[in-house]
Amino acid sequence: MSIRRTENPLRDRMHRTENSLELWILEAKGIPIKRKYYCEICLDKTLYARTSAKPRGDICFWGEHFYFSPIPKLENVCINLYREADAKKKKDRSTLIGYVQIKIDQLTTRHPVERWFVYFFIFLPLSLIKA
Predict the structure, then answer these.
(1) Residue 108 three-state SS
(2) Which SUPFAM superfamilies match (predicted)?
(3) pLDDT in tens, 83-119
(4) Using CB atoms within 10 A as the burial measure, which of 19, 65, 110, 120 is most buried?
């Protein structure tokens, strides 16, 4: 019998779980042109990361990779899409354009999940879209 089993006899019956999340933010489609956009990644309403601001050309492409480990047990992942504030207007703030809400049950697997998620638009006045 080993000393470790003597110290903790239930050690062989204990399990350790380590949660991690690997995420790629690739692109956003169907957003207004001539603006800079970025995403914020929230895990259970806590901000964990942000993409760089990318100008919208033909497509709005980030191609950014994020790896979170260890993380607590999660319920959902939310990715918020923002239009960056105009640098010329000091009072202008970044505007939430839309979001993607993903239940963690959709991602719980040992194999990578590659799929498109539809983001929900936040209502915007027409003046903000054309500006």
Answers:
(1) coil
(2) C2 domain (Calcium/lipid-binding domain, CaLB) (SSF49562)
(3) 888 777 766 788 898 999 999 888 777 788 888 888 8
(4) 19
User: Which residues lie closer than 8 Å to 47 by C-beta, 6 or more apart?
Assistant: 40, 41
CA angle 125-130-131, nearest 5°?
95
pTM, rounded to two decimals: 0.75
Among 43, 38, 39, 40, which Cα is nearest to 21's? 43
Contact 81, 56 (CB under 8 A): no
Q: pLDDT, tens digit, for every residue of 20-64?
A: 889 999 988 877 777 889 999 999 999 999 999 877 677 788 999
